[in-house]
Amino acid sequence: MQACYAKTIVRERAKPEDWTPETMLQRAIAAKTATTRAKYARLGLSTEQPLDRTTQSLLLRQLYLSYFESENFEKALEIAEQILALGIMLDVCRQDMARTLLSLGQLDAAVEHLRLAARAAPASRRSFHWWTLGSVLYLAGRLEEAEGALRRAVRWGTTARPLYDAQLALIQLEMGQSVADVDDVVERLEEAPCGQGYGRFVLGMLCLRAGFASKGEHYLRLFLKRLHQGRKATALSLSGEIAIAQEQLRRLAG
Known about the structure:
Blueprint: H1 21-30, H2 34-45, H3 53-69, H4 73-86, H5 90-103, H6 107-120, H7 123-139, H8 143-156, H9 161-174, H10 182-191, H11 198-210, H12 213-229, H13 232-237, H14 239-253
Helix pairs in contact: 1-2, 1-3, 2-3, 3-4, 4-5, 5-6, 6-7, 7-8, 8-9, 9-10, 9-11, 10-11, 11-12, 12-14
């Protein structure tokens, strides 16, 4: 009778030098779930090795994202406040604070953080913060304020300028203003990289307001499809846009 021998599986243990804060940060960023993201962020933060403020803030941000993705917004806000106290990339931190405050229904506080983010940001990120503020105000129905923020985004915009132009045109149409060359505004955004992702929401809404119902429906469906396939944190951040897109599609179907 042939003897059977059990095979011993030897797993290589991680070397101590592999468990650096930087390695844990990389693993947290690459994590597929909120639980795994939090695990590696905590390991990086609990290290006995030297931890500079930048790495600490980046690890805390991964912990923040894990709470946000888990819809524990109170805890996410607490972590965001810790990051803010470190004084690293203040504009990005205030953007995270605003996102969480919006999820908690604190619109005015979120708007204030976005204004501060836009003012504190380097020139390369200033247009993004003004655009985000304009988007939030648009969703809140505060169209005049939204128009002002989008005008600033257009002023500072570079590669994402077609998106800002289109969203400004959308707001102006909803305010009853006339917009010249709407076709050109739509075409420029369709051809630009920023026309993907959030740009599809703007394209959908702008096309509907401009009377291009079929094209508007097409872009809103693409917007929702992409969000369904993407990260949960993104879908949570865009819950207002999702609700509007779904409502518009229901109206078109009815």
